[in-house]
């Protein structure tokens, strides 16, 4: 059911920004999610389709981009990709240290919202990334990162 919470959160964020920007319709939503999330893209879209019925976001396509997990070595600062879900111990490929911090893989934010029918413009417009609030979506997505918590 994580997908339901995420879709709900997404819709709130998207509608908020679309209304703010005077958009009459939301065409697509680009979302970046860390690779450690177990969210199923298809279900996010399905729940979103259900929840957005009758709103200006009805029919919007959600594009999900996964960001691979990487770690930063606490000793030498080297950043490298690794999957914390494997049973093998993760060691820094440069200095073999086992002390490291997750650098990427837990992100969750709306990168871009593509809207149409913007008031006074009537053209397709893209709301810039910096106008969006990551935290609103993150609060719903955080709970899906149970595996990453063990790192
Ligand atoms: Zn190192």
Could you describe the 3D structure shown?
- The protein is an alpha+beta fold and 151 residues long.
- The protein has 2 domains: 2-67 and 106-150, hypothetical protein PF0899 fold; 69-104.
- The protein is 25% helix and 27% strand.
- The chain is built from 3 helices and 7 strands.
- A hairpin with an 8-residue loop joins strand 6 (108-116) and strand 7.
- The longest helix is centred in the N-terminal third of the chain and has 19 residues, at 2-20.
- It starts with a helix and ends in a 10-residue tail after the last helix.
- The model is unreliable at 128-151 (pLDDT under 50).
End-to-end separation in angstroms reads: 24 Å
Helix content: 25-40%
CATH architecture descriptor text of the largest domain: 2-Layer Sandwich
Q: Which CATH top level class of the largest domain fits?
A: Alpha Beta
**Bound ligands:** zinc ion
If helices are DSSP runs of H or I spanning 4 or more residues, what is the number of helices? 3
Q: What are the low-pLDDT stretches, counting only 5+ consecutive residues below 50?
A: 128-151
**Order of SSEs:** HEHEEEEEEH
General shape: elongated
Tally of separate domains? 2
Tally of strands: 7
Oligomer state of the chains in this structure: single chain
Query: What is the fold-level CATH name, i.e. the topology of the largest domain?
Result: hypothetical protein PF0899 fold
Query: Radius of gyration from the CA trace?
Result: 18 Å
Structural class comes to alpha+beta
Strand content: 25-35%
């Amino acid at each position: 059911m994580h997908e339901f919470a995420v879709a709900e959160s997404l819709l709130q964020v998207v509608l908020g920004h679309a209304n703010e920007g005077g958009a009459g319709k939301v065409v697509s939503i680009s979302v970046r999610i860390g690779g450690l999330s177990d969210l199923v893209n298809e279900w996010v879209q399905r729940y979103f389709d259900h929840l957005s019925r009758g709103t200006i976001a009805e029919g919007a396509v959600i594009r999900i981009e996964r960001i691979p997990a990487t770690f930063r070595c606490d000793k030498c600062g080297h950043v490298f990709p690794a999957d914390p879900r494997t049973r093998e111990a993760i060691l820094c490929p440069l200095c073999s240290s086992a002390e490291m911090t997750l650098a990427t893989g837990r992100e969750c934010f709306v990168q871009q919202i593509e809207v149409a029918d913007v008031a006074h413009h009537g053209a397709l417009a893209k709301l810039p990334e910096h106008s969006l609030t990551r935290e609103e979506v993150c609060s719903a997505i955080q709970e899906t990162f149970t595996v990453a918590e063990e790192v």
